[in-house]
Amino acid sequence: MANTKKLTLFGLIGITMAFFGTVRSVPTLAITGWTQIFYMLVAAVLFALPIALMSAEMSTSYPEEGGPQVWVKNGLGEKWGFVTSWLLWVQMFFGMVMVASTVGVLFGYVINKPELSSNNFFIFIVILISYWGVTLLNLKFDMVKIAGNWGAIIGVYIPFVFLVILGVIYMMKHGIQPQSYLGNFKAKDLLPDFTNLGSLTYLSGIIFIFAGVEISSVHANNIENPKRNYPIAVIVSVLLLVVFNLIAGLTVANGVPKGQMQLANITQPFMIFCTDLGIPTIFVNLISAMILIGVLVQLSAWVLGPSKSMIKVADEGNLPPFFQKRNSRDIPITFVLIQAIVISLVSVLYIIVPDVNSAFLIITITTTILYCIVYALIAISAIRLRYKKPDMERPFRLGKKGNGLMWFVALLSMFSVAITIIVSLIPPSILKPSQYTGYIIYQVVATIVMVGIALVIYKLKKPSWKKSEQTKLEEK
């Protein structure tokens, strides 16, 4: 048996950061002004770190493919394992609408028509074209292989570095701008304004930066000395992400005049910085095109990833044979087309909700709530597995002996998840009072429906749904 090349500590740090490297979330961070420091620390310490550490223990205990679905299935049973895989699939409906919405904004700047960035109907049409476009391309070609890592380098890392550099130069030139989101600094600005509950909702959008933190745990078994190196890699990665995001967030908050932040428009700060520093606007067009490439590559990667996980769940008999269909390239065609149709329907929010900012934030928060339910199930499973399988080999284990540290980390995670869901149900301050009731109803109904569908499907499942071993062999 060939030796698998082990990841170094620095290699895992790089991979972990690559999962969360995104320039799109910077405006959501920046709109909170100085409070973003508090929010980022809360998101990192209470949310990202506990989930990453629990995931590492379960990932090394269950190295087979499947991730959270496998952990929850072993901890809480097949029903909740199915709910977990279902929620990780359906959250993409909302998450990909939010990602695809930036395509229209960026395209407007690429063609020198920035006014299109606030045109709801244009954003809606571009979401449909871009998502169906990458879906159809993925049915014919291996787009992830074609795009490769260059998509992330061109569309994420280079723009992020330029944003930070331009923002720092702008701040050095002007200092802290009194008319910006940073304004005249006061110590109380570092904490949320608890008299304005609507501002707390931004915490949910900031926590979304770390959503998917469990993904890096798949590499925990492939790192040298996981007991020592994995927690170091996770902690260092999260700290670096906090630092880089805060530098970008604070400089953007200093550049954009208060009340004018466009959450779906990462090009806005580039335009402000370049105009002020005398850099030709062709640079903004170029950066917009680069970020646009990065967004399309990201959309392309997500078209097949969750679907491939779901078809395994379908083959186990949790979904009818209709969902088990594959095309000639072994792509789960039913899942891919269903997600494209549902994403098209969810994107109608950009027509119903007049303000692009509001629609963007609402969809981001829905995605975060669904992720939080998955993380609650992971935390409960982590504790349960300690008692169900106490003697199981755990290459990475929270605490040398006993279950005290696991209880602490899991309870910390469940506390942060509960707080996130509660603040997510508070109507954001950018909404009008007349929209408050509709917002709460939408978030509650969307969550109940998404969880409810999974429970109903599981309850109605039949033995005949399970794919026979003979059928599996014939397909191979």
UniProtKB/TrEMBL annotation:
<dbReference type="Pfam" id="PF13520">
    <property type="entry name" value="AA_permease_2"/>
</dbReference>
<keyword id="KW-0812">Transmembrane</keyword>
<feature type="transmembrane region" description="Helical">
    <location>
        <begin position="359"/>
        <end position="383"/>
    </location>
</feature>
<dbReference type="GO" id="GO:0022857">
    <property type="term" value="F:transmembrane transporter activity"/>
</dbReference>
<protein>
    <submittedName>
        <fullName>Tyrosine-tyramine antiporter</fullName>
    </submittedName>
</protein>
<feature type="transmembrane region" description="Helical">
    <location>
        <begin position="151"/>
        <end position="172"/>
    </location>
</feature>
<dbReference type="InterPro" id="IPR050367">
    <property type="entry name" value="APC_superfamily"/>
</dbReference>
<feature type="transmembrane region" description="Helical">
    <location>
        <begin position="35"/>
        <end position="53"/>
    </location>
</feature>
<feature type="transmembrane region" description="Helical">
    <location>
        <begin position="404"/>
        <end position="427"/>
    </location>
</feature>
<feature type="transmembrane region" description="Helical">
    <location>
        <begin position="333"/>
        <end position="353"/>
    </location>
</feature>
<keyword id="KW-1003">Cell membrane</keyword>
<keyword id="KW-0472">Membrane</keyword>
<feature type="transmembrane region" description="Helical">
    <location>
        <begin position="232"/>
        <end position="253"/>
    </location>
</feature>
<keyword id="KW-0813">Transport</keyword>
<feature type="transmembrane region" description="Helical">
    <location>
        <begin position="282"/>
        <end position="304"/>
    </location>
</feature>
<dbReference type="GO" id="GO:0005886">
    <property type="term" value="C:plasma membrane"/>
</dbReference>
<feature type="transmembrane region" description="Helical">
    <location>
        <begin position="200"/>
        <end position="220"/>
    </location>
</feature>
<feature type="transmembrane region" description="Helical">
    <location>
        <begin position="86"/>
        <end position="109"/>
    </location>
</feature>
<feature type="transmembrane region" description="Helical">
    <location>
        <begin position="121"/>
        <end position="139"/>
    </location>
</feature>
<dbReference type="InterPro" id="IPR002293">
    <property type="entry name" value="AA/rel_permease1"/>
</dbReference>
<feature type="transmembrane region" description="Helical">
    <location>
        <begin position="439"/>
        <end position="458"/>
    </location>
</feature>
<keyword id="KW-1133">Transmembrane helix</keyword>
